[in-house]
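Fold this sequence, please.
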Amino acid sequence: MLSKAEVQAIAHDLLGQHARKETFANFPERVPTLDDANDVQDAYVALLCQTQGTEVGGYKIALTSKSTRDWLKIDHPCAGQVLSNRIHQSPYTVHLSDYVRFSMETEICVVLDRDMAGECTIDDVRRNLRSIHCAYELVEDRGADLTRLDARSLVSDNSWNGGIVIGPPGPVDLVLENRAGRLKVNGKVTKEGTTRETMGGNPLHVMVWLIGHLGKRGKSLKAGQPVITGSIIETQFPVAGDVLVFEVDDMPPVELRVIT
């Protein structure tokens, strides 16, 4: 278990690496456990909020697919925190120059209508839904070697979240199991996927995991905080000039424009 001083030292190192736009390098030797990694993430996010004058406005979930978890030899997803100043509405324009290496993922965003924490069921989550949306995660992996991912390093670095883009709300009673989605790049469908790619085949299962995870850390998911629940299509690396439209059956699309 890391001391508070060790946690703060790693958090300050991460803040400096991002400011200098350094390439990401794994550091598992500095973070013995996932609990330590979550402590580092909290400290790093607190520094970000302090320096940017913002607060935690939502959450992202990484490693929702079984294949990725098997690869990293962990049996659950990992969370990241989304700063309020990084929550954007569709259509949104992203600048590649703001990133070391930009990528994005296509996700379902879920927003609750009341605070929740600790153990719960998918029915509890469903009863408390405020809205669901098509969304993008904006990812800053700082040029990491994606063939050598390390979960503790990833979590410490706030699971690489660079922001989210949220589309208009869809029908709140929509059945989310095995719902198909597609990504259009410059008007042409380039990728397709379904919500079965997420944990349990339903984004609401991911919400159950997150709410339990936060409860164990003495936190709650607040009403109105958006949660992106894992990509239904593999990570994409758009280039300048691309216009991306992601839609899920019976839900309004979300749009992202990419410039230099």
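The mean pLDDT is 95. The helical segments are 4-19, 34-52, 66-72, 122-127, 151-156, 203-216.
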